Amino acid sequence: CLLGSLNIQHPGPLFLPVRTKKRHFIPPAVGMKGKKEENPEAKARAAGIVFRQQYLERPINIACSAGVFDPYIPPEGDARLSTLSKEGLRQRTEQIRQSAASQLAIRKVKEYDSQFSTKTFAEQAQEIFIEAHNALTQFNKEKLHSLVTERCYPEMTRGNRYKTIRWRFVESLEPPRVVHARCPDMVTKGNLYGQVTVRMHSKQTLAIYDRFGRLMLGSEEQPKDVLEYLVIERHLVNPYSRWRLHGKIVPSWAPPKDPVIKTVAIPGPELKPWEEFDALNYEVPKPAAVQWNK
Which residues face 68 on adjacent strands? Predict the structure, then answer.
C-alpha cells in the first residue's frame, strides 16, 4: 500500500486552556415557569450590579390638544325654536352674554392667523368636514390625517374595519356659523391652540354595511336632517399648522341614535347524515336570562 509505505502520521487535537470572564449575574434558566422565582433585582444587587431605574413615561403629541377646552353648551331646542318666541329670545340673550370670552379668543387667534375671519371660516370648516368624511369612506389614511387631528382620527376610524361606509352630503339647511371660540394653552404658557366651534345644520345620507354586505345602519336613499357642532382646532404657535377637525359636541338633549342592526347566526339542531332539517317544526331556543352590568 502506498500510504503504508509513506508512514504518514496525523497530528492529534490541540487543547489550549482559555480563561473566560466570570459571570456575576446569571439569567434565569429556561423552564423555571411555575417554580419559585427569586427576586432578580435583589440577586443582582447582591452581585454588585445596579438595576437601571424604570420611569413610567407616556409619550404625548403637542400637534393637537388632548380634548375640548370649555366646550360649547348648545341651547335646548336649537333649530326648532324661533328667535321671536319667548324661550328663543331668552336663549339668544344668553348667547350674547357668553360671547365676550369668544371675542377675546378670536382676537388672540387673529394675532397668529391674520387671514382668520368668522364670516368665511364657517364655510371653510364645512369643507373640511365634507372632505374628511369623503376620505373616511374611501379609506384614504394620508388625506384623513391632514384633515383631522390625532385625537379625532381614532374616534372616526374605530370599529370601521371590514365595514363599507356610504356617506353623502346633500345640502345645507342653514348657513354654517361660528358660535364659540377658545384659545387655551398646554404644557407651557405660550403654547397656544385655537378651538372654534361651528354650528352646521345640513341634510346627509349615511349607510353602513357589514363585511357580508348586509345593511347595519341608515339608508343611502333617505336623507336625514343633522344638526352638528364641530370643533375645529389649530396649533397657533406652529406656522406650518392648519385647521383640522378635532371633535364634535353632542348636546345632552339630542335624540338617541338609531340602533345598529346586527347579523346573528342562530344555531340549529345537530342532524345525522341521513336526516333533513324541517324549518317548520323547529323552535328557536331562547337564551337564558343573565344578569349583567355596565
Answer: none
CATH of domain 86-250: 3.10.450.240
Q: What is the DSSP letter of 25?
A: S
Does the pTM of the predicted model rise above 0.70? no
Phi, psi of 73 (to 5 degrees): -105, 105
Longest dimension (CA), the chain: 127
Domain boundaries, the chain: 86-250
Residue 146 has which C-alpha cell? 391632514
Task: Let me know how long the chain is.
Answer: 294
Measured distance CA(105)–CA(195) in Å, rounded: 9
Question: How far is residue 121 CA from its own chain's centroid?
Answer: 25
DSSP 106: H
How do residues 245-274 score in pLDDT, each as one tens digit? Answer: 999 998 888 888 888 877 777 777 778 888
CB 246 within 8 A of CB 123: no
